[in-house]
Write a structure and sequence with these properties.
Blueprint: H1 4-9, H2 13-19, E1 41-43, E2 65-66, H3 72-75, H4 81-97, E3 102-104, H5 127-143, E4 147-153, E5 166-168, H6 171-178, H7 180-189, E6 193-196, E7 200-201, E8 204-205, H8 210-220, E9 226-229, H9 237-243, H10 255-265, H11 271-291, H12 299-313, E10 315-319, E11 332-335, E12 353-354, H13 360-363, E13 370-373, H14 385-396, E14 400-406, H15 425-437, E15 441-446, E16 461-464, H16 472-480, E17 513-515, H17 524-530, E18 547-554, E19 558-560, E20 565-573, E21 579-588, E22 599-609, E23 614-621, E24 627-630, E25 635-638, E26 641-648, E27 654-663, H18 678-682, H19 688-702, H20 706-710, H21 716-719, H22 725-738
Helix pairs in contact: 2-10, 2-11, 4-5, 5-7, 12-16, 14-15
Pfam families: Fn3-like (PF14310), Glyco_hydro_3 (PF00933), Glyco_hydro_3_C (PF01915)
Family: Belongs to the glycosyl hydrolase 3 family.
InterPro entries: Cellulose_deg_GH3, Fn3-like, GH, Glyco_hydro_3_AS, Glyco_hydro_3_C, Glyco_hydro_3_C_sf, Glyco_hydro_3_N, Glyco_hydro_3_N_sf
Amino acid sequence: MQSLDTLVSQLSLEEKVALCSGEDFWHTKSIPHVNIPSLMMCDGPHGLRKQPGDAHFLEMNDSEEAICFPTAATTACSFDVQLLKRLGQALGEECQAEKVGLLLGPAINIKRSPLGGRNFEYFSEDPHLTGELATAYILGLQQKGVGACLKHFACNNQESYRMTASSEVDERTLHEIYFPGFEKAIKEAKPWSVMSSYNRLNGEYVGESYSLLTNLLRDKWGFDGFIVSDWGAVNDRVSALKAGMDLQMPGHHGMNDDVLLKAVKHNEIDEEVLDQSVKRLLKKVFKSYENNKQVVVSKDQHHQLAKEIAVESAVLLKNQGVLPLKESGNRLAFIGEFAKAPRYQGGGSSHIHPYQIDTALEAVKGITDVSFAQGFLLEDHPLNERLLHQAIELAKSCDVAVIFAGLPESFETEFYDRPHMKLPAVQNKLIQEVAKVQKNTVVVLHNGAPVEMPWVNEVNAILEMYLSGEAVGEATVDLLFGRANPSGKLAETFPLRLEDHPAYLSTKVVDHRVYYNERLFVGYRYYDARKMDVLFPFGHGCSYTTFQYDQLKLSRGQIAEDEPLVVQVNVTNTGNYFGKEVVQLYVENPTGDTIRPVKELRQFKKVALSPKQTQTVTFTLTKRDFSYYHPTLHDWYVETGEYGILLAKSSRDIVLRGTIKVKGKTKVPTGITTNTTFNELIKNPKLSQMITELIETMKEDYQLDIGMIQEMPIRALASFQVVDQEMVNRLVTILNILNK
């Protein structure tokens, strides 16, 4: 193939402009006379939503049959990078079979609030977990010759006013919470494309931000793919192209082609900027064309993979002994509409036309006899007394009652956020009434985000299935009967009530702005800092077996910031079932003047152990694991101090603890002014002795309180007539000289 430079030189200006917008809703334009093919892209991220050629974007449910895998909210709870890689590979095979070159996924926005309407599409409240899983997913997908489109960059954390709202976020929070997932995936997995989000960020549309799309994505992180707009997100096409947004989707029937053409002709845009966008796009278009292969997908095998992923991701929130269920000898009741019509995916552009839906009622038939009662109507209708009474009477007559509850699709979908965290009232009433007459009540949940559980202390067990894809029924039954051992851990915190979550007071869009006032304290970072009770903490999940941690070893007792720290711990399955454990390593930050979360997840590993088996788990921590983003440096900074190394089963269940002294090397520039305080000067090793002596002199000569002196700025010496202003200015000059 001829070089891209040569190819682009053969294109007319009109043809180059045309390539920067779609042919229709799902294809880039082809130019036959120079053999430029079209690239087809389709929605993901948990299945292939390929629409018929004449289908409209808003016809969400009109798509080709495909495997509906568990959603990201579910798969994140697996804490299993290899599983996510296999998911990516399976999606790549399905794309190849359908001649799709680019899958629009994964979606990795941080779950800032449990109310986000699209939270079921996102992985976690934690940036490290998000980045690890996204990287694995992309690597798996692109191994199959299909490109990933990482989305939605950036801070598209709610659906309300998403096309106009400005997310107001400080620099440090962006780099510590909302950017790291994108950064890791771009640097390590190299996605073919990034999708710019609808929203504005600090007043500027993301799709028009040169600092985000070019300075950050390309120059700093090394992104070498093309940037595509979210569908319908382009505000100003000329500004977007200048910023580095290469492809507008959908095509808008060429409406903006004329706008770009005039801008180039009138020298509003240098033609070289246009050429670069065309080259970035064509590089991936030809790569897709060259990677195109004949693939035959076994949907039955992929359905089984969907089941495996659902099993690995389900979280046993609570179990007081009723689970696993016995396959014989018990009278069992399945109660709730979801037992025969499960909720398995969210609504909106990721909605999949499933290949085969497994229900719990069908799956249990091969194991034991179960009686069924509907219990409630799916939507939040007024209480149906007849259905409630039938369910209660059935529960009384059985040994165990399993209630299948959750959120109807209308409660959580793209385009709008949830107004509350409650289950439908009829379901809460059903659970509470059944629990009164049946001590062995199990609740199975189908939901894409946290829900309040006013009945949590009244039931024996809770199995959180999230939105587990088309094989949810078989997966649920295998878990209930112990044919599989639950091993998922929560990838987000479940608060006791809506009012407890950190962004509660600042999720409302006001004057087309949403203020991220909680800053760094998203999810468990907030709850742990507040020492606040939660319903279930981040990283929590029960098992049918037990695990013991011991023999924590650190390779060093003290390191410099550029030296690695190797951490080892032994994990033993001390129970009677084969099981998998997610070993979580948190770094506890030193207590100092810098505002930092108490602890942060830095590493994790999922291990599989037979009864009585022990495995040594090894982690390697590097500079970034001890760093925070310093706004003055515009870079990562290691604070000298003592850090805790915490091995844990959840953010609240710390099993083993070690400490490491870390020596930072980078000096933060600190120009001294008349407003520099004395306690800031005392902390400067070059000035500490001199300032300490000066304070002692002032304390004795002027009978000043030591606490008052320490917090005073230098200019206060003149204000309180200790010295004159000229002397203050001379002192500042001397201190700056000594500080060099």
